Amino acid sequence: MIFPNYWMLFSILFPMTAAFILQLLHHFAPSKTGGWILLSCGITSLLTFGAAVSASSGVRVLRLGGWGADLGILLVSDPLSAVFLFISAFGGAAAVWATFSNISKSGPTAEQWRLCGLFFILWASLNGILTTGDLFNLFVFFEILAVAAYVLTGASKTREALEAGLKYLVLGTVGALLILLATSMLYMGGGILNFALLSSVVGGIPRGALAVAAGFMIAGLGLKMGMVPFHFWLPDAHSSASTGVSMLLSGVVVKASFYSLLRVTTLLFPAEQAGFSIPDTLLVLGLLSLFTGHLSAQRQTSIKRMLAWSTVAHMGYLLIGIGCASPLGVAGALLHSFNHAAAKTALFLGAGSFSTLSGSKEWRSFTGLGRRFPREGAAFLLLAASIIGLPPLGGFWGKWMIVLAAMEKGRWMTAVAVELGTALSCVYYVPVLFRLFSPRRSEETVPVGVFHSGMLFFALGMTPLLLALFYFVPSLYEYLIAAGEWVVSPALYRDAVLGSMVP
Amino acid sequence: MTEPFFVVAAERVLPALLAGALVAAAAVYGEGYFDAVEERRAFRALLRVFFFSVIGAVFSSSWLVFFVFVEISTVALFLMIAIQRRDVAEGYLQIQLVGASFFLAGIAGASIMGGALLSSPVPRVLLPLFILGLGVKAALPGLHFWLPEVHGTAPAPVSALLSGFAVKLGVFGFLAALPSEPHSFLLAAGAFMALWGAFRAALQPDVKRLLAYSTMSQLGYIVAAAAAGSQVGTAAAIFHTAVHGLVKGMLFFCAGILEKTYGTKKFSGLGGGAAALPWTFFLFVFAAASLLGLPGTPGFASKGLIKEALHGFSPISLCLLAANVGTAVSFFKMGAFAFGGVQKSPRKILQGRLRLMNGGMLMLVVFLLPLGLFPGWAPSFLGVEGIRFYSFAKCAESLSVALAGALLFAAYRKKPGFADALLRRIDEAGSCFSCVSERGGAFVRSVQSGFLRGYLFAAVATALLLMLWFSR
Amino acid sequence: MAVMSFLTVSLLFALGLFTVLSRRNVFKTVIGLTLMESAVLLLLISWAYIPGGSAPILPLQGKGVDPLPHAFTLTAIVIGACDIALAFAFIMKLNRFERSVNVDDFRRLKG
Known about the structure:
Strand content of chain B: under 5%
Mean pLDDT of chain A: 89
Structural class of chain A: mainly alpha
Strand order of the largest sheet of chain A: 1-2
Oligomer: heterotrimer
Distance between the termini of chain B: 44 Å
Low-confidence stretches of chain A: none
Radius of gyration of chain B: 23 Å
Number of strands of chain A: 2
Low-confidence stretches of chain B: none
Shape of chain A: globular
Shape of chain B: globular
Number of domains of chain B: 2
Mean pLDDT of chain B: 84
Structural class of chain B: mainly alpha
Strand content of chain A: under 5%
Largest interface: A-B, 64 and 52 residues
Order of helices and strands of chain B: HHHHHHHHHHHHHHHHHHHH
Number of strands of chain B: 0
């Protein structure tokens, strides 16, 4: 691959500059802005996809400014980040497309042009989080992401959106604060902020300091990720935001926070040196998230709030996956994050479009819409079935690997709980599906307008079927296990990064 | 992952034939049963999905493949029940998925410990998970609470498929998972199921619920035979599965015809069917005789084989004998109330529809007749030779059981619903899943109070707790 | 010396936490967040101090204190300022709807 190390740099730089240029462009050529937005979206997606492909074949290290690991900032991507870069490439593209694809000839609406820059800033910071090799850099990119996310959440300026944005802001700032505190403690103990170097000196940090840093880091990253009991902002923010923003937040942003949790805890707080076991704690928090999410999603009248609670539950699955502390568990978590990202992004798109058609966010108003739009209805059905975890669709295989990993460690109750989530999620998804395909002609909703981004939704709806073939692609399975190996043994990462420092 | 998915063996072909027979008969029957065109169309489509999924399940080589196909069949059945009763369907899906959770955990353990193929028994330590998981499907006592409700209120052809085949998938799982030695828990469970099901059946006021409890009772026979651990036991279980599936299918079809004719399932509304539905009555008599195990019927052969298998376990055999009496009581009750007695006002069903429904029943008879006339064929196909089915003692036993049942029924016929409320509460003690999830959901939603300071407190408190937890 | 700075930092953080948790005015919540953030940054800065050190600006006079925390703190201050400004924007817009700055009144989203 040409310039394998530089794709990740441009996947951050390009959207960042595009954000500002697009905002300026609106002043000079409003009618062309729509096309340029979509073009930038395509290029960013391509750059991120290229970064993912180059990372999937090995560790890529880029020394910004030529400074070494002890002085400068490194961009590092390895097979683990490749999975999340794929998610960023496709999820980000889907979200931007859903928001900006219906720009009329006269140019974007006021709403759209105000937000286009923010979408790209969010995307850039997302790629930054996924490719950074430095704690300081991680914090900065997290904050850029957060600010963009806060504004995008409150962008529709309804009462709910503003309240949700404020709560997200306050809780997110507390999270940033805790990350800052943890970073300070790690710096005070280790003297360095680079991941690879820090992970090699972490053995020398006194255990008490390490414990404090670990506690605060997990709390801070948990606040960004939506781990229970740090999840309170998530249902509000993801349900009050507009469709494209929800797609990004639920599908991609929480996964990036999960990625950084994975990186930081395994590199900087490995069990042998720290003396405490983070995976066990994450397992318990994951189980808590699973049950909280699934139980709260029942009896929700707003479809988006239901989907947001479902996100909380699925983050629980990911935490249980890494809580099993084995390559198989991590591989299951990675597969599940990919499945969930694809399905949740699409589900939010579908929910948004059905809401626009029926005029209300309540799913009870979707009567018969699945029959009016059979293609989109079928796609919604497949996506919901995949998220519920019905075999042989894609969503089942991630859970299967997590159940395998749990039984490998002898934790049969965790294994039962993971699949119990399937039963619990049936309780709330099935009535929605019945309502969509309801044959009661007299109560049918008359749709207003056409299905927004129908083709995109249909395409995304086919991903569960594609992922159903996962069982037949052993190379994908091996790749995920290999990525899991990267996580479980931090020495691999350390050696690869520091080894490439030798000029 | 490169092993073959499917395996063809003698003990799998017979269930596959059963599935084929039931699906074909249900297809014919469904054309006559469902009122609306969309219902018929949906039923036909779902039947195809169901058929392919159970064939896949029956011939699967590994537990994971079996699980995937069983789940697909569950979804197909769920959608079929939902054609008429959505609430019952949702409950069915949830309970089956709860059972699937335990089952999947067991399968994962087996994959890790090396018992991933169906052909080898499962590591002993994992057996409880398998029994819990498959037990929900096979309606073991304690896990059976969903069966009367679901089988009793689903549309008749779907009940036939449920009782005739779907619950048997749980038994196939037992047959594959159990080691080849007697399993005392399952033997006891089977005996209990047989007794409880038979006597509860006799007390039901509703024809389909009676049949549902009867299914539980016959499942008890099958589970006890499977738990005997010998090859005779396995053959007996599969043989009785086939016979019971066909017979119960006929009986549910019959109940459906009664429901359509009289507009109700309750015995208080039925009567005089012998005159109004002569063909149906004739087929009912055949099916009921077979279930009772009268000599010459396929039921006699299969129950005889079960008795052979349980030869060394006399308490279990005695329980099954007592259960047989209860079965006799219930079917005399069904015959007397539904087909005998005063003629209640029948509705006029279109002659064509009635013919289709009777035709469905007849198709099953075609499969049953050879099993009854040549009782040795099925066991020898399954590898068990040299059973003497017809002896004076055995014939006398089955006839006297039937007679005892008839006398009991005649004595107690005035009291149809004995202690029904208390027994129902005992039965439904296990159905706490939905109420637990409701209460849990209400509690968790109340925590999300909208109170920002509360959220902040929770977050900071947990951060401090985590820090303290890590530094201990 | 280090003990003094740790004590100050802890006191400041505790004050900030108390403000956030016990005051109902949302402006005070935001001020409390700023206090907490300042406490953490103060911790970082005070760690960077080397006795007898001078400002880490070239050309160095004698020993310079550790510059990295200073850089980190400057960045964090900017980020903090951005967050606060955004918070105020949200509060002002919310005030138009709710006519209140009481945090407990912002409870439309629950359950």
